[in-house]
């Protein structure tokens, strides 16, 4: 039997249920994948609590994973049993095996491990579109990256630095600050001890930032606005502290004709061409050493509840994976 982690009712980590499920043969255009590693993400928690809406109950949690193709359905010609693959899909990843549409899979290069592949498909592709599509980071830019020691944060700090930016990060502890500094940050602000917007002003000598990447949400939104130069861009891409409350558009005017966007990965890889553009750029950056992929924790799939507790308690750094 296939094992999976499902949610039958919305709530805390305790609602994650490790159980047997039936898995039919792959259908038209599908492949069957034996998962080797599964990415752990805050968005998993958002679906579990109901902040993000699943199509219905019960549902299998998770969005990114990597594994081995074990069977192909009718019409599939570009994948074969034994291929190493990775994917980002809307739910269904917390399972030992699954079926997935072939056109949403990418083949893993030989030099990228299953663990790396699993965390690159959401966190890595998110970093790619944030720095290359939402705001094209270039030499001379000054960027602020919240949660700089997190899964997206560490990748974003490395890539922004490689692109020539001055990188300011925020972190919740000295240990996390040291990790961010080792991964591309020029300056790290301990947000629990300092007013980060004031420190950004000091660090930049009043020039502030071209762009703020904010995956934290409610707790950092106002300070993020105050950290931007005139006509700067706030990229709000996550809700780790809760959803951003309603605000008046006049605030953007008052802070200097600012721009705010709320992007999501799915809209940047909606076509096969876009998916492959992002994956190719991402894998190349890992292979040439631009990006290191720090995977600092691994949990058994059956311990998904513990993984969610640690993630929401800010215990984790970098990327974490679940192992079936």
TrEMBL record:
The protein's name: Quinone oxidoreductase Qor
PANTHER family: QUINONE OXIDOREDUCTASE PIG3-RELATED (PTHR48106), QUINONE OXIDOREDUCTASE-RELATED (PTHR48106:SF13)
Record-linked InterPro entries: ADH-like_C, ADH-like_N, ADH_Zn_CS, ER, GroES-like_sf, NAD(P)-bd_dom_sf, QOR-like
Cofactor: Zn(2+)
GO molecular function, one term: zinc ion binding
UniProt keywords, alphabetically: Metal-binding, NADP, Oxidoreductase, Zinc
SMART domains cross-referenced by the UniProt entry: PKS_ER
Classification of source organism: Bacteria, Pseudomonadati, Pseudomonadota, Alphaproteobacteria, Hyphomicrobiales
């Amino acid at each position: 039997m296939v094992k999976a982690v499902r949610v039958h009712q919305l709530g805390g980590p305790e609602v994650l249920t490790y159980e047997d499920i039936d898995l039919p043969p792959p259908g038209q255009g599908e492949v069957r994948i034996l998962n080797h590693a599964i990415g752990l993400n805050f968005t998993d928690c958002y679906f579990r609590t109901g902040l993000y809406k699943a199509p219905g109950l019960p549902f299998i949690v998770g969005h990114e994973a990597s594994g081995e193709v074990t069977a192909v359905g009718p019409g599939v010609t570009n994948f074969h049993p034994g291929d190493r693959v990775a994917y980002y899909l809307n739910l269904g990843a917390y399972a030992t095996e699954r079926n997935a549409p072939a056109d949403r899979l990418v083949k893993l290069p030989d030099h990228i491990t299953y663990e790396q592949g699993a965390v690159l498909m959401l966190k890595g592709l998110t970093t790619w579109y944030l720095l290359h599509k939402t705001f094209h980071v270039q030499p001379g830019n000054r960027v602020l990256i919240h949660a700089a020691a997190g899964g997206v944060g560490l990748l974003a700090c490395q890539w922004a630095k490689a692109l020539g930016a001055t990188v300011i990060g925020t972190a919740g502890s000295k240990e996390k600050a040291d990790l961010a500094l080792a991964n591309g940050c020029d300056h790290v602000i301990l947000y629990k001890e300092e007013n980060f917007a004031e420190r950004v002003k000091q660090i930049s000598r009043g020039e502030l930032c071209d762009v703020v990447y904010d995956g934290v949400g409610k707790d950092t939104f106002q300070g993020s606005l105050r950290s931007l130069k005139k006509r700067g861009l706030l990229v709000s891409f996550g809700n780790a502290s809760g959803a951003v409350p309603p605000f008046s558009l006049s605030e953007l005017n008052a802070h200097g004709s600012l721009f705010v966007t709320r992007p999501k990965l799915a809209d940047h890889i909606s076509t096969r061409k876009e998916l492959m553009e992002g994956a190719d750029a991402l894998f190349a950056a890992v292979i040439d050493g631009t990006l290191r992929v720090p995977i600092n924790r691994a949990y058994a799939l059956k311990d998904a509840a513990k993984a969610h507790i640690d993630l929401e308690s800010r215990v984790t750094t970098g990327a974490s994976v679940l192992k079936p």
